[in-house]
Recover the amino acids of this structure.
């Protein structure tokens, strides 16, 4: 046991004061961002396969709708990530995960890039970035 | 750093100057659990408190402890900040409005969930509205209502652990957006304990 932890144990109060949260803390979940990102990737895939589309719409109409929906879904990814970034994570988390800001910045940039990209590989990069955040998130929940 | 050392030294001197049997009646210590008072107070911080509520005419902004008033929270001690004062009308959601004026809260962060937006017609005498600084992640007066003064059991004075963040925990000055309202004949008339709106020195 280090000197610091010995002192800490010696002066630790016996009463715990809860700066706690019953409900709102429990509703955060990176799964919201992941689900929207999966939609983005699925739309990118369908855009690539649009030539094989058979339906009432023309291929051009189909692709136009795909782009419009992807635009919305990518914005929702950003929204969910921002809520996690600014509301859930705290300075204490940042101390433990010093790359947290950079991780979120890259993920939200990828969500922005997804609006312009019709490549499913790009969508997968976005999902990978969200997975990284998801891992950190659930580690903080265990702490 | 010098301020921190002086604060700790003053606390230690105060403790030494008071007989041990009286110390426990005047002061108490708690450990912070949870994130709702971040970034000012973090989980694992050790705090020194004066027992009882802060002075009536300077209550705003103090971080205090109170027993959780809800049956499901029996036995739990809560740590929150006094934001609303007796006699005030509050509107909480997307910030705090006191008697129709937006309170400037440099200590607060995070968006209040819509489910926690509240309008309080007027706080009763000797009751306070307590909020966590992390508005997106706090269970406080938005959920369990205003807290009577006699249920506030301690007022935070300083943080004595961890050593790199030792220091006094001071209430911020109370400031509002926009010009000050007249103090007589205004919304605070007749409420002796309410701090004058717009007076930065009121706390």
């Amino acid at each position: 046991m280090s000197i610091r932890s010995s002192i800490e144990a010696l002066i630790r109060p016996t009463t715990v004061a809860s700066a706690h949260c019953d409900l709102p803390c429990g509703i955060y979940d990176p799964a919201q961002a992941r689900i929207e990102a999966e939609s983005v990737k699925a739309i990118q895939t369908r855009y690539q396969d649009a030539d094989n589309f058979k339906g009432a719409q023309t291929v051009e109409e189909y692709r136009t709708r795909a782009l419009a929906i992807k635009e919305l879904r990518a914005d929702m990814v950003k929204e969910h990530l921002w809520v996690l970034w600014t509301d859930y994570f705290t300075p204490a988390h940042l101390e433990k995960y010093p790359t947290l800001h950079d991780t979120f910045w890259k993920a939200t940039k990828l969500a922005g890039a997804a609006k312009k990209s019709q490549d499913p590989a790009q969508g997968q990069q976005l999902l990978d970035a969200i997975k990284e955040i998801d891992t950190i998130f659930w580690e903080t929940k265990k702490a | 750093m010098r301020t921190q050392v002086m604060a700790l030294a003053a606390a230690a001197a105060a403790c030494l100057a008071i007989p041990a049997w009286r110390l426990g009646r005047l002061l108490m210590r708690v450990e912070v659990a949870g994130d709702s008072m971040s970034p000012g107070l973090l989980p694992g911080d050790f705090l020194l408190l004066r027992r009882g509520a802060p002075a009536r005419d300077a209550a705003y902004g103090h971080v205090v402890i109170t027993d959780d008033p809800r049956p499901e929270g029996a036995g739990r001690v809560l740590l929150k900040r006094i934001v609303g004062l007796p006699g005030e009308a509050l509107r909480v959601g997307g910030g705090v409005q006191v008697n129709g004026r937006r309170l400037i809260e440099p200590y607060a962060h995070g968006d209040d969930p819509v489910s926690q937006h509240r309008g309080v017609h007027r706080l009763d005498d000797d009751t306070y509205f307590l909020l966590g600084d992390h508005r997106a992640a706090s269970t406080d007066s938005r959920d369990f209502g205003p807290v009577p003064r006699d249920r506030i059991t301690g007022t935070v004075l300083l943080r004595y652990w961890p050593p790199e963040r030792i220091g006094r925990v001071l209430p911020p000055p109370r400031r509002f957006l926009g010009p000050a309202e007249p103090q007589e004949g205004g919304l605070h008339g007749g409420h002796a304990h309410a701090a004058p709106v717009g007076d930065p020195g009121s706390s």
